[in-house]
Amino acid sequence: MPLETKLSKLKKLMTDGKHHEALRLAASWPRLGEHKETIQKGRAADTHPEFYRQIGQDPDALVAAGIAAIRERYGIA
To answer: What pLDDT, on a 0 to 100 scale, did the predictor assign at position 1?
Structure first.
């Protein structure tokens, strides 16, 4: 039985449509490259949407951007 890696778990979450769980997982990783800020901000907006509304930002758009950044970073269709 193959060992499940963090990356394989992330890919499975994404393909299963569990984007919020995938965002939570990826945001905890230390090496996200140029996508780090977008993924972490997406996770923060997912966790605290009211705060982002209060500062004039759309939490849904930030979450969507974080998910898109995961797809781009890890080549997930």
So the answer is: 63
Cβ neighbors of 25 (< 8 A, separation 6 or more) are: 6, 9, 10, 13
| Angle, in degrees to the nearest 10, between helices 59-74 and 36-47 | 140
Query: How far is residue 38's CA from residue 44's CA, in Å, rounded to a whole number?
Result: 10
SS3 64: helix
Query: What's the rounded Cα separation, in Å, for the pair 73 and 76?
Result: 8
17-29 b/e (C-beta count within 10 Å ≥ 16 → b): eebbebbebbbee
For 1-53, what is each residue's pLDDT tens digit? 678 899 999 999 999 999 999 999 999 999 999 999 999 999 999 999 999 99
